[in-house]
Amino acid sequence: MSLSRAASLCVLLLACGASPAAAGEYYKAPFSTDWDATRHAIYEAENLIAFLEADPMTDDGYRAPIIARARAEIRRLQATLRPAQWRWTTPCCYSRKPIYIR
Questions:
Q1: Is the CB of residue 49 less than 8 Å from the CB of residue 71?
Q2: CB atoms < 10 A from the CB of 49, how many?
Q3: How far is residue 70's CA from residue 45's CA, in Å, rounded to a whole number?
Q4: Is residue 53 part of a domain?
Q5: Helix axes 60-80, 32-54, angle to 10 degrees
Q6: Is 68 part of any domain?
C-alpha cells in the first residue's frame, strides 16, 4: 500500500468518525439523557391530551379519565426536572435605570 493511499484512508476514517451525525452517538452529557426522555414523555402526554380534546367523536366518559391521568403524569414528570438556572450576560431589566421619554 502506497503512502498516499494510506494517508487518504486515514483522512477518510477521521472524516467518517468525526462527522456531526455520529457525534451524538458517542457523547452525551450525563444529565441530557434523563432530561431528553422526560421532555419527550411530557411532549407525548400533551399531544395525547390535545388529540383527545380535539376529537368531537370521542365520548367524554372515555376521554376524561385518560386526560386526568395524563395531566397527573405531566405534573409528576415536571416535578422530577430540576429548576432552570439561567445565565444571563447582562443584568435583569429591573436592575437598570428607568428610561424617561420627554
A1: yes
A2: 18
A3: 6
A4: yes
A5: 160
A6: yes
pLDDT tens digits, one per residue of 23-52: 555 555 555 568 888 999 999 999 999 999
pLDDT tens across 88-97, in order?
666 666 666 7
| Region 77-93 average pLDDT | 75
User: What total of structural domains would you count in the chain?
Assistant: 1
For residue 52, tell me if it sits in a domain.
yes
- 80 Cβ contact partners less than 8 Å away, ≥ 6 residues apart: 38
How far apart are alpha carbons 11 and 6 in whole angstroms? 9
* Contact present, 20 and 34 (Cβ < 8 Å): no
| Residue 61 domain boundaries | 42-80
Whether 29 is covered by a domain: the verdict is no
